[in-house]
Amino acid sequence: MRKSKKTKASKARETPSIGDSNPKAYQHRYVVREKGDEHYPPPLYSDGDGFNKGAAECEEGGNEGAAEFEEGGNEGISQCVDGGIEGADYECEEGEMRGDKFDDARISDEEGHDNTVVFNHELIFNPSFELRMIFASKDEFMKAVQSHAIQTRRTLHCPKNDKIRICARCRGGGCDWGINLVKIKGQATFQIRVYNPSHSCPPIFKVKNMKNTWLGERFVPDFQNEPKRKVDGWRKRIMKDLNVNISRSHAYMAKNLALGLIDGRPDEQYSKLWDYAQELRNSNLNSTIILDNDEEGRFRGMYVCFQAMKIGFRSGCRPFIGIDGCWLKGPHGGILLSAVGVDPGNSIYPIAYAVVSAENRDTWG
Questions:
Q1: pLDDT for 309-343, tens place per residue?
Q2: pLDDT (0 to 100) of residue 114
Q3: Is the pLDDT of residue 129 over 90?
Q4: Using alpha carbons only, what angle is made at residue 180 by residues 175 and 181, rounded to the nearest 5 degrees?
Q5: What is the mean pLDDT of residues 16-32?
Q6: 3-state secondary structure the chain
Q7: pLDDT in tens, 54-113
Q8: The model's pTM
């Protein structure tokens, strides 16, 4: 009776599994690799074309060159070493720092709390990193990395950033600098588990991590002391101090952001008008304070007349009232209306004022 030939697929199905007592059985360790979002194992055997030379080959009759996995280690399996930590299984994207990987056998809680250093948030614009340093949040770490990039004049990025770990790398060609941050189990904090502080790439002038948000937050004191300072002169001074490029648009946006942090956003200030009006009523008894809202509860106008102004006008001012209005500059606009009198010294005496959306009979009435 003629025997049918076994195909390669059937051979693959009959391949002995790991732990089989058959002496011809081979054992193979899968190495997880990344290709986009897909994870795939290497082939179990080669077809003689030289692909995957380290994989074991299963051939009928045995193969003298098959790799054997022994307890206690395998010389054919390479181990990635990152800053003295071995056994990692995560490879960063784009082929950068191929030896740097996240340590699967993470530092235990007891070992992780030994010699730990808590990051000082006051040094967020001039940070220094250490192994086992703890950060309160991911945002704090990302801002510290951005400050480090500007401070050292290198462009840094994070090829891996998820809920439990962050991988920060340098974009310089062949640079070995890198940090692996891992979330501490059962806590909201993060800890540096792998850190290589050495840069092998030269510093650059155009650092991509330079953003207008970082500039605005970093140099708030400059505009707090001198809000009307010129942007061009300030930009040249900062470029000289940091030795990095700052575009004119980034400088203007940084100034606006800094002034916003100093004065506050107009939307936030409008939300405090009701508290302001109540405080005026409490501190100035019998004064007239009126807030006008629309149907949705949004601010539409305000009228203020203090009791002291009423008494002063009745007792010493001439029987004359003048009215005037002016436009308000700002993101929300509006008109400021005022009523004034004339005191015995022939000077202007304020009586009342109002903020309205438009000047018409209704608002004056």
A1: 999 999 989 998 998 889 988 778 889 999 999 99
A2: 60
A3: yes
A4: 145
A5: 41
A6: CCCCCCCHHHHHHCCCCCCCCCCCCCCCCCCCEEECCEEECCCCCCCCCCCCCCCCCCCCCCCCCCCCCECCECCCCCCCEECCEECCCCCCHHHCCCCCCCCCCCCCHHHHCCCCEECCHHHCCCCCCCCCEEECCHHHHHHHHHHHHHHHCCCEEEEEECCCEEEEEECCCCCCCEEEEEECCCCCCEEEEEEECCCCCCCCCCCCCCCHHHHHHHCHHHHHHCCCCCHHHHHHHHHHHHCCCCCHHHHHHHHHHHHHHHHCCHHHHHCCHHHHHHHHHHHCCCCEEEEEECCCCCEEEEEEECHHHHHHHHHHCCCCCEEEEEECCCCCCCEEEEEEEECCCCCEEEEEEEEECCCCHHHHC
A7: 333 434 433 443 334 333 333 333 333 333 333 333 344 433 444 444 343 344 445 545
A8: 0.56
Under the phi-then-psi rule, with left for phi > 0, alpha for psi from -120 to 50, and beta for the rest, what region is 227?
Answer: alpha
User: Angle at CA 334, nearest 5°, toward 328 and 335?
Assistant: 70
Residue-level pLDDT at 90: 39
Those residues with Cβ within 8 angstroms of residue 332's Cβ, 6 or more apart along the chain or in another chain: 266, 270
Q: Which two tokens stand for residue 136?
A: 């309160």
- Cα–Cα distance for residue pair 196/283, rounded to 1 Å: 61
CB atoms within 10 A of CB 142: 16
